[in-house]
């Protein structure tokens, strides 16, 4: 039995990986548990199986050696502790967007919604980023014989670069609140919440901001979503230029599928292509919104196939 896990700041998802497919998916609120071991114990109890030959885990945080910590959680994961607690011969631990990148490799066209650009170029790098609780980024490098290498990054923690007067005032607002202002402070669920707070003085959930904006019921919500989507586009293009991702840029995370209908209306592609002397490069690069609901779980399993040791 192979278990795959996607550990996020909000939710932790677990499933069985069989024959390239995920089954028995369960979702747990991450902060309701004191450790990953508690979540895994609950999952094993629920499915009624305890003989696990391998577990592959993507976590929203930095992986260093055999340990990983999540920025938005009070607990982390240690490979040796898991092996001892559950007698699991093989434990694979990776950044959540490394797992998502492996998942991109296995997607079908029905799992994707194209947002401009030309056709993908064969044997070219791909880039993946996605906003949720934070902003994850990774790069996929093609190798020989249909094999791939995935480069995990912490690109979401690079600086936010304001491009107009409103964004400059937003930057100052965020700097006063957080000190260092990374792009994740804007392009994420909490970022969308903060943009709306900056514009309106009111604190509501990111979901409420999206609902108000999509219903066109609140000008501040519409402006907040526009700032969010434009900066999503700018950061996607930054990653595309750094990786020359002619194999495509893939937008994952929990937010994009919920607002996919307004990506064009709120300026994503315009911002993506607004790269001055590099405009001719980025306008050819296709962008896809990933519609697969469990990309991280799929990728954690695919990683075992492509890198079996």
TrEMBL record:
Keywords attached to this entry: ATP-binding, Cytoplasm, Glycolysis, Kinase, Membrane, Nucleotide-binding, Transferase, Transmembrane, Transmembrane helix
Subcellular location: Cytoplasm
Pfam families: Glucokinase
Gene Ontology MF term list: ATP binding; D-glucose binding; glucokinase activity
GO CC annotations, alphabetized: cytosol
Major location category of this protein: cytoplasm
InterPro entries noted in UniProt: ATPase_NBD (IPR043129), Bacterial_glucokinase (IPR050201), Glucokinase (IPR003836)
HAMAP family: Glucokinase
Similarity comment: Belongs to the bacterial glucokinase family.
EC number: 2.7.1.2
Keyword Transmembrane helix found: yes
Lineage per the UniProt record: Bacteria, Pseudomonadati, Thermodesulfobacteriota, Dissulfuribacteria, Dissulfuribacterales
Binding positions for ATP per the UniProt entry: 5-10
TM segment ranges: 285-305
Name of this chain's protein: Glucokinase
UniProt-listed GO biological process terms: glycolytic process
Catalytic activity: D-glucose + ATP = D-glucose 6-phosphate + ADP + H(+)
